[in-house]
Design a protein that fits this description.
Elements: E1 3-4, H1 12-27, E2 41-43, H2 62-73, H3 80-87, H4 92-97, E3 104-107, E4 112-115, E5 118-119, E6 124-137, E7 143-160, E8 166-171, E9 175-178, H5 182-185, E10 186-194, E11 201-209, H6 213-222, E12 249-251, E13 255-260, H7 269-283, E14 290-295, E15 298-299, E16 318-322, E17 328-334, E18 337-339, E19 352-357, E20 364-368, E21 372-376, E22 383-387, E23 395-396, E24 402-406, E25 409-413, E26 419-421, E27 431-437, E28 443-450, E29 453-463, E30 469-472, E31 476-477, E32 487-490, E33 495-501, E34 507-513, E35 526-528, E36 534-538, E37 547-550, E38 555-557, E39 566-568, E40 571-575
Length: 578
């Protein structure tokens, strides 16, 4: 009798197998993302993109069956053919019962495996493993990054068939994907929803299977905004509207055909037009150019109208500059220079330590010392807005509302001057240390001090009919792996820059994404290289460059990853509108 005791392995061979598969794809110049054109009309279920995956090897032992299955299955969301190969590793019953849709666990590396003792006469056995999970994707496509990789136990049951071959008979629902290959299997998709005044888009990032991302995104939009956004955006889709067929097609002209059920006929012309704009903003990435909405097979007439704008910061950054005996003064950042304001606000006698502004400098708000916020203008004396211990630098939304925190509690000051504390249930045990509102005014990013240390959260802003903030939605955790964050600012539609600390105690900048960072293979937060140690950062959504203030009071502007020219010394604070 032969007894098999399979030791733990590092799975280096498995990583090599996948790397070789991707290399073959690259050598053949085959795409690893996007849709594949075939014929005149391409449905959003593309042909195999060319992953060189193989079915079970004859005589493979239980561990090899499991590790090869994990390797193959992770690419299934990008290719129906790949899932067909993955199916060969399971018994028909196990395949029919396995839900591979969720959760998706994003692994830092492949698991180490152990096999329960078995011999040549054994008909069953189990393979166990432990993996480190860096992030997860739920059934809605929402990505969540963990503060640090977390261990998870894995288990697969196997049986030996009459032909002597091992196959998987039992496994947990969900999919394992190596972090480096996340963007190969899933498509980072930005859904857009209109603000209540229909002037701006509010982005919402999801991760959908690469082979069907347009279909999944369309279904999500037709279903209406997710719960956290429901009081911050509007839906123009009549109840009951769904896809007439479970697919979305793109023709050779780049026209995306979205065929929906007859419930769409209840939508007014202006709502129908906005829905088309919403679908175009979401779906036209890559080869898609425009959306044609149809009721079954009949194209629907859509009137031309102005579409909402994507979030963008309006205006230049303002800086507080120490002028020696003249005291601190406001200057505008223009390229690599500081210039005087055309109409300088009255700030004489104030100890300026922070500045904030609304779009186009309307209004301009400064912090005097560390306990007062004042609205300043060129034609009027400063007006005190709020006073209290430890007032944070102000953030001003597009409605002119000033956001700050006093003694760790979140406050808003309306344009007319009335102030109020914003009561948010999930902030009860947390103290706010930084606050910045997004350009479209529908979201806010907060750095808070919680029971487990500093955390960064983003939430949707809830407003009344007069656009006065009344609360915040359930939040999203972002930048979880970045330690000791002291400040955050918007640097993209769904990207924030974080001022945190490195293990040696020095302050560093990192980029993190709400719903996962764009432009990276694993969607995780990444550190930015700066020429010196930053103590303050200001960034904007759009083309404006990131600004960093170092320990010597020197303001620098980011022109590229390696080029940070100096703007001026003697700078105390800097901020973009927002």
């Amino acid at each position: 009798m032969t007894v098999h005791r399979t030791p733990r392995r590092a799975a280096a061979a498995l990583a090599g197998l996948v790397a070789a598969a991707l290399a073959l794809v690259g050598c053949a110049s085959m795409p690893t993302s996007g849709d594949v054109m075939q014929g005149e009309v391409r449905v959003d279920t593309p042909v195999d993109v060319g992953f060189n995956v193989q079915g079970p090897s004859p005589g493979a032992d239980p561990q090899q069956i499991v590790q090869d299955f994990v390797s193959v299955a992770q690419f299934g969301p990008a290719s129906a053919n790949t899932f067909a190969v993955a199916r060969e590793y399971l018994t028909p019953v196990a395949w029919s019962q396995w839900n591979h849709g969720a959760p998706v666990l994003v692994l830092t590396e492949y698991p180490d495996w152990t096999v329960e003792e078995y011999d040549d006469a054994s008909a069953t056995t189990s393979v166990h493993g432990e993996a480190l999970v860096a992030a997860s994707i739920d059934e809605t496509g929402a990505y969540t990054e963990l503060p640090e990789p977390s261990a998870v136990d894995l288990s697969y049951d196997l049986s030996r068939g009459t032909d002597g071959e091992w196959r998987i008979t039992g496994l947990e629902d969900g999919l394992l994907v190596l972090a480096n290959f996340l963007a190969e299997a899933f498509h980072r998709t930005t859904l857009y929803y209109p603000t209540p005044d229909r002037r701006w888009w509010v982005p919402d990032v999801r991760w959908y299977p690469e082979q069907s991302w347009r279909t999944a995104a369309t279904q999500e939009i037709l279903a209406g905004p997710p719960e956290p956004l429901q009081q911050s955006v509007v839906s123009v889709v009549p109840e009951g509207t769904t896809l007439a067929i479970d697919s979305v097609s793109v023709d050779d002209r780049g026209v995306i055909d979205v065929s929906v059920t007859s419930a769409i006929s209840a939508a007014p012309a202006e709502d129908r037009s906005l829905l088309v704009a919403q679908l175009e903003e979401t779906l036209r990435e890559g080869d898609g150019r425009s959306v044609e909405l149809s009721d079954g097979n009949n194209p629907l007439a859509v009137q031309a109208s102005d579409a909402p704008s994507r979030p963008v910061t309006i205006g230049d950054a303002l800086a507080v500059v120490d002028r020696g005996e003249e005291g601190p003064q406001l200057r505008r950042v223009s390229g690599t220079e500081l210039v005087e304001l055309t109409e300088p606000p009255i700030t004489a006698g104030l100890d300026l330590t922070a500045v904030g502004a609304g779009p186009g400098d309307r209004p301009v708000v400064v912090r005097d010392g560390d306990d007062r916020l004042l609205r300043v203008a060129a034609d009027a004396e400063p007006v005190q807005l709020l006073r209290g211990e430890g007032v944070l630098p102000p953030s001003v939304d597009r409605f002119g509302t000033v956001w700050t925190a006093v003694d760790g509690e979140l406050w808003v000051v309306r344009e007319a001057g009335a102030s109020s504390r914003l009561e948010v249930e999930w902030l009860v045990d947390r103290r706010v240390r930084s606050v910045r509102v997004s350009p479209e005014g529908a979201r806010v990013v907060l750095v808070v001090q919680g029971p487990e240390g500093r955390e960064v959260w983003a939430a949707a802003i809830q407003r009344d009919a007069e656009d006065v903030p009344t609360g915040l939605s359930t939040p999203w955790r972002i930048g979880a792996p970045v330690p000791s964050v002291s400040a955050a600012d918007w640097s993209g539609e769904t990207t924030v820059v974080l001022l945190g600390r490195a293990p040696d105690g020095s302050q560093v900048l990192s980029l993190a994404g709400i719903g996962g960072l764009a432009g990276t293979s694993d969607a995780g937060a990444r550190e930015l290289v700066t020429p010196g140690e930053p103590v303050h950062v200001a960034s904007a959504v759009g083309a404006s460059p990131m600004l960093v203030l170092d320990t010597g009071g020197v303001l620098q502007t980011r022109q590229s990853s390696a080029l940070w020219p100096s703007v001026s010394g003697g700078v105390v604070a800097v901020a973009y509108p927002g």
